Amino acid sequence: MGVLDNKIALVTGASRGIGKAIAERLARDGALVAVHYASNSEAAEKTVAGIVESGGSAFAVQAELGVPGDVDTLFDRLRAGLAEHTDRYELDILVNNAGEQTAAGLAPEDITPEAFDRLFAVNAKAPLFITQRALTIVPEGGRIINISSGLTRFAVPEQLAYSMTKGALEQITLHYARHLAPRGITINTVAPGITDNGSPVFSIPEAREQMGRLSAFKRVGTAEEIAGVVAFLAGPDGGWTTGAFIDATGGTLLG
Ligand code: NDP
């Protein structure tokens, strides 16, 4: 018996990185997990196969976010996927994890309106409208978790535009928390610090050590550590926490 038995979860951006670890953890806890991705179908199918091999239930859902019609596509495909696995068209847990970030960032003077619009479309607008649509099928007791970043509390000039999108995402948590409390639905923000998402840079020892220095523990975080925080919020022990900003940066914000 898992604490999330009979629950249905959608994790956006779950083909790789932090989202993959969240999908795996929620599935291990018993949920049927929709593994959303943009274009990397091979990675998404691998995530699903891993979950199924471990005795869990999952299926992949493709939808590029940040383009017109994205939310319709996502929910049409979610509905089709759920129909193959359950007779419920409901969502107990939504994790808004998918996000984009330019690898080296953008110096403040190099931010263009186009880059700004794209970042906002994927990282802020899409989660807002996914949340709005999801709420038509989230029952009482539902859980919504938004994956932000410690960068809303930590100045890195090259991440100004990205951090603005995450600041906007955090507003979804704050204002919806009040709006959703009468329905018994919680919504919270989890803010990772630098977290190994499987990108090649994490295999370079010098780069890894340099990134790790920001954390009080002097190492980068693991995707599983972020998934553990999400699992708490999604599970039965998370029911009295809403509207919260949860620092999952390994003490980076301690200064
Ligand atoms: P990855 O780059 O490893 O994975 C991104 C995921 O999001 C993939 O599944 C990708 O799908 C999907 N995705 C990206 N863009 C889109 C899009 N336009 N439409 C739909 N899906 C999309 O990300 P991380 O694991 O590093 O990050 C996950 C979240 O955590 C993000 O919101 C990020 O901002 C945040 N974060 C990450 C930190 C880190 O150090 N890793 C630190 C702080 C916050 P596909 O595989 O198909 O491309």
From TrEMBL:
<dbReference type="InterPro" id="IPR020904">
    <property type="entry name" value="Sc_DH/Rdtase_CS"/>
</dbReference>
<dbReference type="InterPro" id="IPR036291">
    <property type="entry name" value="NAD(P)-bd_dom_sf"/>
</dbReference>
<keyword id="KW-0560">Oxidoreductase</keyword>
<comment type="similarity">
    <text>Belongs to the short-chain dehydrogenases/reductases (SDR) family.</text>
</comment>
<protein>
    <submittedName>
        <fullName>A-factor type gamma-butyrolactone 6-reductase ScbB</fullName>
    </submittedName>
</protein>
<dbReference type="InterPro" id="IPR002347">
    <property type="entry name" value="SDR_fam"/>
</dbReference>
<dbReference type="Pfam" id="PF13561">
    <property type="entry name" value="adh_short_C2"/>
</dbReference>
